[in-house]
Design a protein that fits this description.
The chain folds into three domains: 10-88 and 106-190, 2-Layer Sandwich (Aconitase, domain 3); 193-300, no CATH class; 315-434, Aconitase, domain 3, CATH 3.30.499.10. The chain contains 19 helices and 13 strands. The termini are far apart. By secondary structure, it is of the alpha/beta class. The strands form four sheets. The chain has a five-stranded parallel beta sheet with strand order 11-10-9-12-13. The protein has a four-stranded parallel beta sheet with strand order 7-6-5-8. The protein has a two-stranded antiparallel sheet with strand order 1-4. Helices cover 41% and strands 13% of the residues.
Length: 439
Amino acid sequence: MEDYGIELTREEKDILNGKKGEVMRKALKSVVLYGRAFGARRLLDVNTPVHLVTSFGMTGLDTVFDMMEEIIDAGIKTDRPFTVDPRPIDYQNVKCTEAQKKVFNLLYGEQKRYESQLKSLGLKDDNAFTCTCYMPEVGNKPKKGDILSWAESSAVVFANSVIGARTNRNSGIIELLCGIVGKVPEFGLLTDEGRRAKWVIDLRTSKLPNAQVLGSAIGMKVVEDVPYIIGLDKFLGRHMNNNTMDYLKDMGAASASNGAVGLYHVENITPEAIENGRSLLKQDYNTYVIDDAELENVIHSYPVLWENVSSKPSVCFIGCPHLSIDQIYGWSKTISDALTEKGKLKVKLNTILSAAPDVILKFKQDKRAYDSLMDMGIHLTYICPLMYMSNPECSKQPVITNSNKLRTYSKARFLLDEDILYAIVNGHIKGSENFEQNI
C-alpha cells in the first residue's frame, strides 16, 4: 500500500485498498492527500452534517458535475443530510432585465442539473440553500466541540468562534468528499494549538463599532491569524444572546472576506474565551489598537468602483451573509419608522433583504409584519447577492450595501447602516459629494 505520510486506521486502509469500491477509494485518497499537504497527522471523524460552498450550476464546471455523477452512480451519499450556499437566481423577488436574464442563463446554465445532483447526494431539502445554515430555522447548527467539514467562509468563522465547533476553511468539493467518507484531516483550526491567538485586538472606541467595519479592520490586519478581541464586551455585555450573535455573524463575515479569519475569540463572550481567557494567547502575540480614528481610516480606504461615482443608487442589498429573522424584523421597523417620520409610505430605492428560505418562511407566518414589509416596497429573497453581482449586466448598476463581504467581492458601494437607511428613504446618498472618493 502507498505510504501517505499520515496515520491511518485499519478501516481507512481498507477503503484505500478498494474494499468499499473505487469511488470511495478515490474520495478518501483525495481527503488524505489534502490533509498531507497541510501537515495533518491523522483523520478525525466528522460528526455533523457538512455544508457546501458550491451551490451554483455554473457553466464550465464539467469536471465537478462528472465527479458528482460518478459518486451518484456508485450509490454513495453523505451520512447526514447536508446544507449548501444560496441559490444564484430568484426572478420572482429580484427583478431582472432580459439582458440580465440572458447572462444569468449563460452563467448558471447547469443549475437545474446540479441541484438534482445535490439532492441525490443527500441535500437536506429544497430550502437548504443558505450561507447561514446554523440558523435555528435551517437546522444545521453544530454543538461546541463538534468536528465539521465546512467551506463557506462566513459559516466557518461563526461555527468556530460563536459556537465553538471545529472546522477549517476547507476548499470547495473537499468538504463534500469529507462528508462522504465521514473523515476530515486534523490540522489548523481542528487542533488546540491552531486555535490559539496570535493577535490581541484592543478595542478603544467611544461606542459600539459597526460590525462590518470592525470585522474589516481586523481581517485586513491579522489576515489568516486568530485574533483575541478585548473591549467588545463593554458594549455587548458578557452573555451570548440573539443580538450579540447577529453582531458577531456580520463582524466575522467581514473579517473572513477582508482577510481570511477562520476563528476569533472575544473576551468574556465567545465560549473558548470564557473557558480559557487570555491563556489562548500565544507567547509572542501582536497587539492592534482600534479606536474611532482607526475605523474612520478604514472606511475612507474603501474604493468606489461605480462608473459614475455621483450616480443615484438603483439597488440596495442587505443580507450578505443572510439575515437572521431578528434582523429582518429590525430592518422592517427601522425603515418603517424612517418613512413615517418623513411622511412617506414606500421606499425610494429597490431594497432587497436576503435571508435563508426557512427564515423567510417563518417571517411570512407573521402576516402583519410581512404585509407591512411588502407595503413599503421591500423585497425578500433567498439569493446570494454576490452571485447577482457576478453578472456583468447587474454589476453595471450603482448598487449600495451595508455588507463588507459584498463590497469586497463586487462593485457594490459600502455604506454604514444609517447612510443605507437614508438612501432607502430618500433615493440618493446623503452628502456623497462631501466624502473623499477613492477610485
